[in-house]
């Protein structure tokens, strides 16, 4: 599940667009490549992972549970997720850049639930993988070409990459596919690329793409 593509990004200034909300950039709820730290839910939904399962999720993707210090370092550069998750040594918490009415208890920082004596409690997970930025990342450049790891060779199995493009208020993204070759199936249920025109990967769904036909250019709203 990874793209074999080159993508070209062009940001236009002074256009009607989106960027900051409530004074901060909001992250993908699934993944933010900030300091190698990212958030994971179980496939069955929010707050479904025991400590052992959370460790297994991170290790399956080549990482490990993040430490409190790693989560705080990510938070300091904008990592903001309103969902409690397991960290290393059985700790639970979540990173808040700017508190909201239902998140953060009016505080910023890592909201710390402490070390949990009951490792069967069910939360999400915060993983750390310093190599994860090779497969995804946060882009703020005026122009950027990016590609799947190992391009032009085939991508590896069981890869999930997220690219999060951050904008100043009033800018738009022009996304153009230069090369595209994924497994083809009628519903794009195997390998695919999904694009969202939003602050997260729940709203603003643009489309899901697979096969070897170049998708049309996309301009954000």
Give an overview in words.
It comes from Daubentonia madagascariensis. Residues 1-17 form the signal peptide. InterPro entries: C-type_lectin-like/link_sf, CTDL_fold, CUB_dom, Link_dom, Sperma_CUB_dom_sf, Spermadhesin-Link_domain. This protein is mainly beta and 221 residues long. The chain is 9% helix and 30% strand. It has 2 helices and 14 strands, in the order ββαβαβββββββββββ. The protein has helices spanning 51-60, 68-76; strands at residues 5-12, 37-40, 64-65, 85-86, 91-96, 109-115, 124-128, 136-139, 143-147, 162-165, 172-180, 193-196, 205-209, 218-219. Strands 2, 3, 4, 5, 6 and 7 form a 6-stranded mixed sheet that branches. It has a 4-stranded antiparallel sheet with strand order 9-1-11-14, with no helix packed on it. β4 and β5 (91-96) form a beta hairpin. It is globular, with a radius of gyration of 18 Å. Residues 1-31 have low confidence and may be disordered.
């Amino acid at each position: 599940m990874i793209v074999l593509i080159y993508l070209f990004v062009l940001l236009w200034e002074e256009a009607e667009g989106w960027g900051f909300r409530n004074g901060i950039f909001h992250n993908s709820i699934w993944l933010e490549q900030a300091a190698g730290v990212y958030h994971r839910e179980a496939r069955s939904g929010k707050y479904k992972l025991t400590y052992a399962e959370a460790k297994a999720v991170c290790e399956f993707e080549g990482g490990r549970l993040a430490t409190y210090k790693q989560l705080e370092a990510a938070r300091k550069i904008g990592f903001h997720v309103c969902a409690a998750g397991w960290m290393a040594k059985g700790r639970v918490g979540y990173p808040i850049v700017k508190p909201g009415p239902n998140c953060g208890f009016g505080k910023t920082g890592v909201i710390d639930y402490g070390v949990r004596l009951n490792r069967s409690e069910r939360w999400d997970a915060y993983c750390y993988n310093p190599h994860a930025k090779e497969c995804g990342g946060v882009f703020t450049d005026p122009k950027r070409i990016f590609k799947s790891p190992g391009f032009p060779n085939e991508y590896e199995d069981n890869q999930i990459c997220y690219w999060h493009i951050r904008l100043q208020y009033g800018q738009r993204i022009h996304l153009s596919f230069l090369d595209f070759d994924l497994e083809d199936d009628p519903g794009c249920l195997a390998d695919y690329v999904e694009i969202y025109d939003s602050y997260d990967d729940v709203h603003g769904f643009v489309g899901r793409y697979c096969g070897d036909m170049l998708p049309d250019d996309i301009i954000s709203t």
